[in-house]
Amino acid sequence: MAIQQQVNKTLRGIGASPGIIQGRAFLVERYKVRLPQKRIPALQVEEEIKRFLRAIEEAKSQLREIKEKILDPQVRQHAFILDVHLMILDDQMLIENTVENIRKRKINSEWALDLTLEKLDAAFKTIEDEYLRERRNDLHYVAARIFRNLMGKKHDDITKIKGKVIVVAHDLSPADTLQMQLNQVAGFVTDIGGKVSHTAILARSLGIPAVVGAEVATSLINGGDLLILDGENGEVVINPTEQMAETYLERQRRVKLLEREILKYAALPAVTRDGIRIHLQANIEMVGEIPSAKSHGAEGIGLYRTEILYLNRKDLPSEEEHYRTYRALAESISPGVSTIRTLDIGGDKFLSHYSQGNEMNPAMGLRAIRFSMKETDIFRTQLSGILRASAHGKLRILFPMISSIEEIRRAKTFLEEVKKDLLRSRIPFDRQIPVGAMIEIPSASITADLLAREVDFFSIGTNDLIQYALAVDRINEHVSYLYEPLHPAILRIIHHVVQSAHHAGIPVAICGEMAAEPAYVLVLLGLGLEEFSMNPIAIPKVKKMLRKVTVTEAKALTERLFQLTTATEIKRYVRKWMAERFPGEFD
Ligand code: PEP
Ligand code: MG
Predict the structure, then answer these.
(1) Atom of ligand 1 nearest to the CA of 462
(2) Domains of the chain
(3) The pTM of the whole model exceeds 0.90
(4) Residues contacting 341, CB < 8 A, separation 6+
(5) Which residue's alpha carbon is nearest to atom 9 within ligand 1?
(6) Quick check: 378 pLDDT over 60?
């Protein structure tokens, strides 16, 4: 299907990671092949079968070529996935069933293969084993390659990215993103996704501008189109006129200047004008982000998301690997503290071909601590790695998605058992390692007064808390207008959590994306929060704002907000307050 060339067309999506850039589009079309369905005359059947088999052979040689070209040893260790795909291409079920479909039904190869996929899909659905169920996604990935060969379409392979490009895809899972040579990626545009989807978070933490939820990007953009991407305002211009390009580039220059100015705040202490010391920490997903966390002025790691250790691989990380990773983290942040969150797999972290089976509501399914409690060996291995690393620097353990007292008690029991094992083996660890709960489920926030007696600290995860409290899917672009951090319900929930923590005398931090917006930080400060963790790049801007306000005025502002009734009123009030107090500074 030839796509019409667009000229100077602006697409609007959600600004997921700031920055304005210009670059050529690199289209990842894997999931968007429209299949021709044709009946064929009996005489043509044998020729059609040959066509199908040729497409398979072609797919094999393409995969072998991709494999050979991977030179980077770090990427190479993930090459097993290509072997899995090669095995699928030899699968007799796949081949014979399709050949039979062509022969018996007298239909073209595309249709025949599609019918085979339907059949295999049905078989996959009944498989209990999660690992095997995931292979269904590999099957589809391979099938998309065969379809493309049949239809003579070009393969835009993620691993073949050359030169700085803007990756345009229907959807990208964190695993997809990590397979790319990220130094070649100037920006991301996706059809689906919201501001707090994990790909958006990853893009922000890597400082790669991104627009998500652009809905029709892959339909309107052709590979090679010139794009201007504005990750702040969520705009993508396809093949801009020279004048349009100049307007954006001028804005880019201004933004860069502003960024440079703001970076000066990185090294300054985060102290309010009335002398209250605020703790600013970084959310990171890879040890490689530590230098960025430090250079942006983080005093610790408030959230280390450990999921990436588990993605893009067939095996599981060993205890030794956990230990080495967390030790490197502890040592490089020392004397600062690093907060390691145990595996939070599930939800939108299994998008695309890493989708976790067939859960109807993955966000409310077998996710995070629930997964760890089921796969107890995986959980114990990680806990043991964290504990061992705690002998080398200050670490805290954070359990995600806690929804009840029983759950936190069970998680702590596992931890105690692992501690006992280490003691028996005389392996050193920090016996006082603080244990915290993510407060991101309404039941946890409502019972925060009870939960506070069970843990050493709280970390409020507003990304999920807002999703669950307002019943708004955090990655669904159609309801993103309802995703409202300043909803009166959210302010009341956070207020209760902070009060409960203060009452129990335990520290409370916020690590959701809300902590990265100066206007929200102001409100959170008024709600009594003094510890914020955010993507490193946001730290200087937040510091700048904190150094200009007093806690007293933030409290007065927040008190006023509690008298307002709607999110719109609250937002308008905060915006006006910010504009009067900091004219032109945090627009
Ligand atoms: C959150 O939910 O706010 C959070 C910080 O965790 P994640 O975004 O990884 O779910
Ligand atoms: Mg969360």
Answers:
(1) 3
(2) 9-30+156-244 (3.50.30.10), 42-151 (1.10.274.10), 258-278+459-587 (3.20.20.60), 284-433 (3.20.20.60)
(3) no
(4) 303, 304, 305, 306, 398, 399, 400, 438
(5) 305
(6) yes
